[in-house]
Amino acid sequence: MKKIAIATVAALGAIALPAAAQAQDTAKPEVTIGAQVGLHDLSVDTSDPDLDGFDIDESGEIYGVFAAVDFPLGETLFAGVEGNANLGSGPIDAEYGVSGRLGLRTSGGSKIYARGGYQWVDIDAGNLIGDPDFDENDFDLDTTAGDYLVGVGVEVPVSSVVLRANVDTIAFDTLRGTVGVGIKF
Q1: Rounded to the nearest 5°, which phi and psi values hold at 163?
Q2: Where do the domains of the chain lie, and which CATH numbers do they carry?
Q3: What is the DSSP letter of 74?
Q4: CB proximity list for 116: less than 8 A, separation 6 or greater
Q5: pLDDT mean over 4-31
Q6: Do 50 and 20 contact (CB within 8 A), yes or no?
Q7: In this structure, are residues 56 and 64 in contact, taking their beta carbons and an 8 Å threshold?
């Protein structure tokens, strides 16, 4: 009886092993690293009386990198994490953040997702108020602000390259659009 039980367990193991290996291949995380550019509108309230006399520049271009790791949660659903770091122009010196992603993968491999996380933005106060000679360090100002990020995005694969577009807001106070290209690993 022991021999039959051992043979049965061995046979079931031999049958289950390829199925487990195949399931592990489909559950393998997908890593994407790339570059992005965009426009970040800080949505400064220019009607604020404290800003009278200033030439407010509230939008700046951003240029940077991103890295994302997505984990399949079934045939079409996936969840992941993403980090980004950008340098800016105009009123933005730099920005960086991290977010979680949850979305759907189409049959063609495209991904549509929502994301939420936290983003820090380092403001160039001189460029924001239109006075490039203003140096926030002279006044010991902390010009880095952070808050929650909420957004949506889409990624479209073209061979091993990924084209992507995102629209985000930071605390529903700003609006940021980015486009990028990445490589899947």
Answers
A1: -100, 140
A2: 28-184 (2.40.160.20)
A3: S
A4: 99, 100, 148, 149, 150, 151
A5: 51
A6: no
A7: no
